[in-house]
Every structure is written in structure tokens, then in C-alpha cells.
């Protein structure tokens, strides 16, 4: 039996450090493990469902597509584990303090800045949310790192800058990004106001398909879940990956994004890429 | 169940509220609940993001409360786990024999989180590096720093015959060359010494800075009246390179400080005594004060080293012999430097003056030899062996 091969998208050079470190950890504990890097999530998902890799460290949007694509092939995808820090995220809709808008519906007819076309937190979820609130908006999109599903914070930062500069009426940001932009000074204290919060929803997960060898997958999950933050060898890797503990995967946190992908016509029900202006 | 409550007032997480949260959560047990009040805009949103990143959990306040908090933080255990296996990097006043590499750059006595880099500081043995006098020597060195622009009477008028001035220029050229070597040698060891031996690092750092000033003042004296410097001989540079090339700390310190800088203290005293002008007298005196300290540390740590490991004397002996062999066929001291010293001490060209100057340089060489023998004996060499070894020291003085 060959090793369990996991895919990861290299949105940042640290991905190599993280998974090289984890790989050593797995191999020392008897799990034959290797990883391959992808430049974007779409190819990773396609390779997962095709069986070229047995696990994929997926963005939430990649999870949505993997689930649909697998199902269309008569397979079942499931989130094996996820980071504790990826549970219950929210998106905020932010305006300048002097704006007349009090709630998302007030943005009807206005211009709204978002992250990249494929950002769940800064584009898909908020745009679907605004549509649901009955606000028809003009979208000013900041496409940074297309194909990385919003892993790049730069698109959100550009959206926040556009809001501060008065170029747009509102910006859509991850809750944590709003705090970051305030702390770093991209947004001035007191200059913006949150008029809507959408969520909670879950973020990344480790996706597996039922064609993968069960024994390897079980051992993989066991080793991930057993990683302790008190272990001095693992902690730098966990810090780098931005988690404290791996938790069991759950499917319940993706309904908001599933609905958004449908409403905005991003993916089809069988995992087809429908968004015309999406070129990863 | 009674909940702890924290009122943040108008303070938001974008402006430091996390300090109050941390302080209040710290003494609680994992799973304990903290109700948070506050008026900062978007506080609930930011609390959610902050808790996620910090490993705490955020709950909405229970319904039906008369004065509900903004949210309830359920304490996680991330911070406890981080510091669970931390250890102290010794104690501030206690230098250990062999500090482990993982203490790395941590201050001596700091609480060190486990993990992280294990930098290679290959000079990590107290016996090799330490001298009990090091902290006091460092304090002394720091207190005695002087400003080259202010400490020397650069503009004081003086008259010196042209040829004596040329001799001063030659000697200053030679001194500068030696100072460059004296700077490089400790500088190259600095980055290899385990930071646990902080005072040794500090002392050597100041020593490097001392040499930088010496280079400056000797060059400046040389160029005070002349546009050109004197000569640099191949033999002199070969002798200095034998110093710079030594990669063993004990041996380099021995050759540089105990033998070389020790001899230099005598040379600088000679220059101060026979200087033809006030600027030369002052630069020699200032450099001599620093050099005394350099010699003191070299002798002190090598004496402690030799006490802990008597066999180190065999290596020191071999180092002198090796350098002697390597330099056997070189001229050693630049002949022009020797003659310049004679002329400088003579003060003029009459045969009587030259005879006096020559005798003074001979006495200088005898003083240097005496000093080296005295220091070798302090390191535990018997008198007859100290005499033999001193005779093998480079003719270049440094
Ligand atoms: Fe010096
Ligand atoms: Fe020196």
C-alpha cells in the first residue's frame, strides 16, 4: 500500500514549512504520508475526486465543490478534521460612520467593495447575504490571489482602503480582518461602523473521499487529533498553521456557503464551475 | 452559578482591551466563564474573532438577564499549554557550566518556552570563556569610554623636527595596522559565544569598540601634519595574519591578549614616555588604558581555564611554537618601525641622541619580555619555560 498523499494549496511559502514538519511527525509515527502542492484549489479538488490524492487541505469553498463533485461521481466526501480556529466565523458589512445606512438593506443601489471573486468570507457569503436582505448593489471586487479562495487577506485590505477613501459605500470583511485593519491602522478608530453580521459559518477542513484507504485515513485523523499544543516540537507548526487543536470535522457549518454558491451561480450542483469571470 | 464580570468601558479590542481580558482570564481555570461588558463599537464582533484566535470560546449571554453583558468568554487552555514545559535559562546571577543551545538568545534567567531554534553557539563552555572578573571589567570598560574628538588635544601647537615627525607617522601607521587585527580577532569570536556568558560578550564588544577608536586616533595622529602614511611590511602583515587565522578561542586570546596586547601595553607606555609632542603622548596613554583591560581579561579567563584543565597549557605552548615556526622565515617587525622607534626616542640625529634612543628601544624589548614572562607564569608556566616561550614571541610585538 502506498502512502497517504495529501494536497495543499501553496498560498504562502510557510505551507512548505508546515507540511514538511507534519510529514516528519506522521512518518515517525508509522503513517506513510506525503503531500503535494497546488497553485489553486480547483485542481486540488479535481485530483481528490479523481483519486490522485487521498486527502485535501481544503478551503470551505473547495469543500463545497469537492462534496458536489464527489457526489456527482457516486462518491462521498467528508470533512475529516478541522482547525479549532475555523469554527463559527462571521462576515461583517462595514460602512463609514457618517453613512446613512443602518442595516444591510439600506445599501440597496449602493456600491459595495468585496474581496476576490472566490473569497467565501469577503465576497460570496456577504453578496448572497445582501441579496437575501433585498439589497441590489454594485460590486467593486478586489481580485487578489484568485484561485486561493480568499486565503490572501490583501483583497479584503484593498476593499477596506476603498471604503476609508470614500470610493465605495460599504465593504465586506471577515470579522477578524476588521479587527486587524483597525489595529494596523488601515481603518481609523471610530471611522467605520458595522451594520450587519452574517454567519456563523465554518472555514477550512481536511477533506477525504470514501475511495481512500480507510486504515490510512483513520490513522491520519488519529494523529492529527492527537497533536497537542503543549508539545514543543508541534507548537511552532500549529502556530504557523494558526490553530490550537485539530477538531473532528463537521458538515453543519457550510450551509451558508452552499447557499451562497447556488444563489450566485458560482458552482453547479455537480461541482461545475459556473462563474464566468472566475479564472484561477 | 456566579459569573465573573469585566467592564471594558469604552475600550475596544482595536485599542488594547485584550490586556484587560488576558489579565482577568489568567487566574481563571479552563472552562470558567467571564461576562464582558463594554460600549466599544463592534465589541461583540471583535470578541468573537479574538476568542477564536486565542483559543477561548464565546457565548451569547443567557436570555432574560436584567443587564445582559455583551458576551460571555469561556476560558480556553492555550496559554497554559504553551508555558507548561517552559524552563528558566539559569538564574540572572548564576553562570552555568554548559548552557544548552535551546536557551539561545534568551536573557540569562528568563523563562524559556520550549521549542524554537537551537542556534549553534559553539563557544559554550564556562571553563573556556568565563572569568570571575568579567562583569567588573565590563563595568569598568563601559565607564571609561572616551570621545576621540574631545579626549585628545588635536589643536595644541607643537614643534617637531621633520624626520622625527616622519618617524611618528611610521609608528602610527604600524599601530593602526595592528589595531585592525586586534579588532577582527574578538569580533570574529563574538557571534560564536553562547549569549548565556553575557558579560564576556559585552566585554569583548567594548573591546572591539576600543580598537575602533584606537584605529581612528592613530590614523588621525599620522595624518596630523602629513598627507601620506608610512609603510606596511609583508613580514608584519604575515605576523598579524597568523593571529587573525587562529580559530580556537583560547589560543587566539592567548596570542592576542596575553602576548600581543601585553607587549603593546609596554610599547604604548614607551611612546607616552618619549613622545615628541602632546598629541602622540595622549593617544598612546588613552590606548594603553584600554589595552591593560584587554590583557587583564585574557590573563584572567585563561588562568581560570588552566586551573580547570591543566592540559590547556600544552596547547598554549604548542600555539606559540607553531606561530614561531610559521613566521620563522619572515622579517617580523618592519625594519622601518624599529628605526622610527629609535629616532622617536632619540629626538634628533646626533650620535649621542641615537645611542640613547637605541638603548631605550632595547630596554623596551627587555620590558616586553619581562611582562610576557610574568603573565606566562600567572598562567602556571614554570619560570624557565616562561622565559623560553617569551623568546619565541613574534618580533612584530603583536
Ligand atoms: Fe588597541
Ligand atoms: Fe586591544
TrEMBL record, chain A:
Pfam families: Phosphonate-bd (PF12974). SUPFAM superfamilies: Periplasmic binding protein-like II (SSF53850). This is Phosphate ABC transporter substrate-binding protein.
